[in-house]
């Protein structure tokens, strides 16, 4: 089953969680995935972020995702690449008893996530980004290679901007994900840009 959202915002502060919840409520046609990620990778930090969204009465067009830790109230769990490998060693996705997505950085990790039963994957980093200084990223070539290798929806992540998002869709990405991408752009405008990109990438 493909996720209903094609944009995946990663929030690391309560203020960002509130902003994205409000944006989703104000734009009913928007389908947004909202991932709660604690910068220090703390479980209680993720729980606080999810509680913030729930207290804001997250609308039905918003899918709440908890990063690294299963949290009540979230619809999806997002595994780190390390968490994915640990899951594989434990015997596969069935032991989670819940829907999940996963971070990947290569064709091999993408294939593993698909075998484990991930609903979607993020592929990163694709382009230079301030969060990973000195790393150029795999670029559109890696993105196209991964998208051709797996059937699971792939979200482009890492240095994705309003300017290169359309190229990511053209390369085969199901959607886009990011921190700065959503923090630095109006979500409604990004949604419109994604719709145009999807139309141009669709076969006639």
Count of runs of 4 or more consecutive helical residues: 8
Mean pLDDT: 91
CATH topology: TIM Barrel
Q: Which homologous superfamily in CATH is the superfamily? A: Aldolase class I
What's the multimeric state? single chain
Descriptive account of the structure:
The protein is α/β, with parallel strands linked by helices and 204 residues long. The protein has a single domain, classed as Aldolase class I (TIM Barrel, Alpha-Beta Barrel), CATH 3.20.20. Helices cover 40% and strands 17% of the residues. It contains eight helices and eight strands. It has helices at 14-26, 43-55, 81-90, 107-116, 139-149, 165-170, 180-183, 187-201, and strands at residues 7-11, 32-36, 62-67, 76-79, 100-104, 121-123, 154-156, 175-178. An eight-stranded parallel β-barrel has the order 1-2-3-4-5-6-7-8, surrounded by five helices. Strand 4 (76-79), helix 3 (81-90) and strand 5 form a beta-alpha-beta unit. The longest helix has 15 residues, at 187-201. The radius of gyration is 16 Å and the shape is globular. The two termini are 24 Å apart.
């Amino acid at each position: 089953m493909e996720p209903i959202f094609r944009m995946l915002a990663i929030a690391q502060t309560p203020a960002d969680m509130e902003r994205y919840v409000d944006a989703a409520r104000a734009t009913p046609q928007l389908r947004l995935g909202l991932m709660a990620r604690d910068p220090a990778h703390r479980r209680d930090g993720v729980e606080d972020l999810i509680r913030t969204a729930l207290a804001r009465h997250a609308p039905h067009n918003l899918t709440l995702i908890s990063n690294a830790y299963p949290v009540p109230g979230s619809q999806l769990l997002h595994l780190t690449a390390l968490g994915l490998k640990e899951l594989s060693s434990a015997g596969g996705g069935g032991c989670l008893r819940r829907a999940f997505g996963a971070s990947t950085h290569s064709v091999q990790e993408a294939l593993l996530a698909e075998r484990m039963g991930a609903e979607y994957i993020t592929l990163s980093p694709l382009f230079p980004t301030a969060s990973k200084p000195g790393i150029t990223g795999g670029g559109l070539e890696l993105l196209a290679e991964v998208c051709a290798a797996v059937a699971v929806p792939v979200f482009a992540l890492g240095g994705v901007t309003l300017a290169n998002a359309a190229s990511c869709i053209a390369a085969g990405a199901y959607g886009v994900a990011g921190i700065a991408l959503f923090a630095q752009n109006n979500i409604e405008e990004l949604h419109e840009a994604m719709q145009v990109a999807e139309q141009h990438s669709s076969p006639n």
